[in-house]
Every structure is written in C-alpha cells, then in structure tokens.
C-alpha cells in the first residue's frame, strides 16, 4: 500500500526545501519573514499555519540540510574499502562545499554553530549534536581500524576524531572568508597526514 502524503505535509516540506538555501546563506538572524514569503509565494498565515515560528522553520531547515550532508557522506563511505578511506570521505564531501554548489551557503553545522553560539540555544543544540555525532563516527572508525590492525593500538581516538572535525570546519571557514579554496586543500592535506600517521605500515 502506498503511503499518501497529506497536503499539510507536502506544504511543510515545500517550505523547508524552498527556504533551505536562504537560511544556509543568510543565517537565522539575516533571514526575514519577507524572505520566506517571497521565496515560497505563501502568505505569513500559510507559513505559520505549518510552523510555530521562524525558529521552527530554521530548525527543520537545519535538519534538512544536515541530512543532505549525511547522505553524501554515506554514499561515499559505502564505496570506501578501509577505515582510513572512510575517514577521508568527510574531507572530500566538505571540499565540495567550496568547489561546487552541492549545498549553497556551505556547511550548515559551521554556519549554525557560528551564528547561534550565544543567540539561539535550540539551533546551538542542533549544531552541537551534529558535531558530537560526527565525533562518535570518527571514533568508531578509528576503533574499528585499531581492532582490525589498520591503525596503531596506541592511537588517541578522541584527539584525532576532534582534530579531523576542527581542521575540516576551520579549513572551510578560512577558504570561504578569504575566497581561497586552495587554503582548504592545504588544511585537508594535514587531515590526511593525521590519518596516515595513525596507520600501521606493512613492509
């Protein structure tokens, strides 16, 4: 049996998809209700008939944009043949934020964390959870690599997991602010070096 999507659910998804780029580009504070009504062609009443507030829309949009990132990561990880390659998938995906229009506005985690740090606790919590989930994935991959003999058993999993995130997000920020994608490439080489140094070299 085919599950039918209600009109309200379709409208809600339309609002999310239509405003996703606006929020990710202009930020929560920079996005006005007029931006939302103009982009969707809907009235204020229609938008607030599906969402409690602009913040409610922003939260749904963050989840939507993050899901796109996770899907891109998942698809590439499925093709990776080692834990090291899986860790490097994040570098490849985040490089696309700079070099392609994969997700206009860039990384939703970085954008949201930077803006919502002291101004919006709900958005800050969403970004924090995304980072902690990313950290856990990195640690799990490193531990799996240690167990299989791919990484040294002395590998500091949490330190490397956090360093990968910090380097990638910092590299994306620097590249965007300076409009210099080559900066990200340099940082990503450090990410690769960090991962390679943890690997066991079989001679």
Give the SSE map.
Elements: H1 7-30, H2 33-40, H3 44-50, H4 54-77, H5 83-99, H6 108-116, H7 121-148, H8 157-178, H9 181-198
Helix pairs in contact: 1-2, 1-4, 1-6, 4-5, 4-7, 5-7, 5-8, 5-9, 6-7, 7-8, 8-9
Keywords: DNA-binding, Transcription, Transcription regulation
DNA-binding region: 32-51
GO molecular function: DNA binding
**Mean pLDDT reading:** 91
Specify the structural class: mainly alpha
Overall structural domain count: 1
Helix content: over 70%
CATH superfamily: Tetracycline Repressor, domain 2
- The N- to C-terminal Cα distance equals 57 Å
Continuous helix count: 9
Any guess at the CATH architecture? Orthogonal Bundle
Q: Based on DSSP secondary structure assignment, what is the total number of beta strands?
A: 0
Question: Percent of residues in beta strands?
Answer: under 5%
> What profile does the largest beta sheet have?
none
Using the alpha-carbon principal axes, give the shape.
elongated
Helix-strand pattern, N to C?
HHHHHHHHH
The multimeric state of the shown protein is single chain
Poorly predicted runs are none
Rg over alpha carbons: 19 Å
CATH topology value: Tetracycline Repressor, domain 2
Would you state the CATH class?
Mainly Alpha
DNA-binding region: 32-51
Domain HTH tetR-type: 9-69
Keywords: DNA-binding, Transcription, Transcription regulation
Organism: Spirosoma agri
């Amino acid at each position: 049996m085919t599950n039918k999507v209600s009109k309200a659910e379709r409208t809600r998804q339309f609002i999310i998809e239509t405003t996703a780029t606006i929020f990710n580009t202009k930020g929560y504070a920079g996005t006005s209700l007029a931006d939302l009504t103009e982009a969707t062609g809907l009235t204020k009443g229609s938008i607030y008939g599906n969402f409690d507030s602009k913040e409610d829309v922003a939260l749904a949009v963050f989840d939507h944009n993050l899901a796109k990132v996770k899907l891109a990561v998942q698809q590439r990880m499925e093709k990776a043949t080692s834990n090291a390659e899986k860790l490097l998938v994040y570098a490849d995906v985040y490089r696309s934020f700079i070099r392609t229009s994969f997700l206009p506005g860039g990384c939703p985690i970085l954008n949201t964390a930077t803006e919502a740090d002291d101004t919006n606790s709900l958005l800050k919590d969403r970004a924090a959870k995304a980072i902690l989930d990313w950290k856990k994935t990195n640690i799990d991959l490193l531990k799996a690599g240690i167990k299989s003999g791919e990484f040294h058993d002395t590998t500091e999993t949490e330190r490397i997991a956090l360093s990968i995130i910090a380097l990638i997000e910092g590299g994306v920020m620097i590249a965007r602010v300076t409009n210099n994608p080559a900066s990200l490439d340099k940082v990503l080489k450090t990410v690769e070096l960090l991962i390679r140094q943890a690997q066991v070299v079989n001679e």
